[in-house]
Fold this protein.
Amino acid sequence: MPVIVNEKDGSSFVQADGDTILRAALRSGHGMAYECSAGGCGACVFDPVSGDFETLWADAPGLSPRDRRKGRMLGCQTRACGDAVIRCSTSVDYVPPIAPRRRRLRLIGTRQVTHDMREFRFSGDGPADFLPGQYMLLDLPGVAGSRAYSFSNIANAQGEWHFIIRRVDGGAATQVLFDELRIGHEIGADGPYGTAYLRSRSPRDIVCVAGGSGFAPVLSILRGAAAEGMLGERRAHFLFGARHVRDICGAAELAELPGFVEAGQFVPVVTAPAQGEVWAGAEGYVHAHLGTSLPRPLAEYEFYFAGPPPMSQAIQELLMIEHKVPFAQIHFDRFF
């Protein structure tokens, strides 16, 4: 198996069969910078120094034109063909708290959440060990490349892994999930991954913001907070952005969480009601309601958010630039 050396800090790790450079690094406990693990964000970019490399997705959007001119590569879309030397950024913040590993999962049930979002429940051997807010890379039959989907449940001894996924028009992966996968079918999976997990030791109140299927990791975070008794000690605010009224979800799931009714706030925000829809709640972009929905200065909260890239970018700029929220209190993984 290839041995990869990071020239920047002198560390090295082994790339197992089937692994990308990023997966090999994280599986070995090396903190290579990353977010989406799927070629979109560009966080795992590295400079090849020596050796031969195989590119899995040459047109991955995570590489900027400048990166391409400089010959840089994405760790999540590259494999070393033999021993190699690279140069990349690392940090203890990216060292996986739970080592990711490959496994087989079997579909045991589904539940419709909205008209275009469905919960998929899988079972695997051994306990399901992950942190609230993390995600898994799924390998679906007939689909090239892995797809990243966030957990909607929390760790459990029964070995159940739940995901809430939105159907994407023309999406190969969601076509398989929604139209072809049947109860009892098995898929490949690798994880857990992700750094936007619940910080249970933080004394601050929790603010979650989600749009679309970003509901999944936020629900996992709130379920984790409830399971650890955090909602008895602090409040939790959940702002959910939906395009239309029929896209709203979450009220039923939140009502089941111990402590949320007493210590929680749910604010659904509709971008624009569709023709014929009746809506008396908040309208516009969800991030615009942060300042008016929270009773204290934003810098006093711990933030978790997930959703489309424009939403995540707008929230990050609002928090860091306009309200001076420390970056250490902001948790998100960019997905594209």
